[in-house]
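Suppose a colleague, Dr. K., hands you the sequence of a protein chain of 123 amino acids and asks what its three-dimensional shape might be. Before reaching for any lab equipment, you can write down a predicted structure in token form. Begin with the sequence itself:
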Amino acid sequence: QVQLVESGGGLVQTGGSLRLSCTASGDAYSGNFMAWFRLAPGKEREFVATIGQSGGSTYSADSVKGRFTVTRGDTVTMYLQMNSLEPEDTAVYSCAASRRDTLFTRTIGYDYWGQGTQVTVSS
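The predicted structure, expressed as tokens, is then:
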């Protein structure tokens, strides 16, 4: 069984920054693509960014390009540096991990999910 644990969420003012972390544990995880998704009240879950095992393959949603950066610390750790935060970024951010070495932007591509961490941006 693979477990994902996120940390780093919190309350920040518009224009501020936060850094989210996600760590995978469990012998079953081989360290393939990982991703961040977010869920805001009244909205559907939204893809944020994804990154391959080596960190060389990344892709981000248009809504966060230029502001958010996804990186890998190692095969089981992923980060999301969020700068220039806006109230529209308020959501629960969850990390996800895939068993496949394929870039996915949809939830169906990911097999393991964390519980999420709340990010709130005040205006």
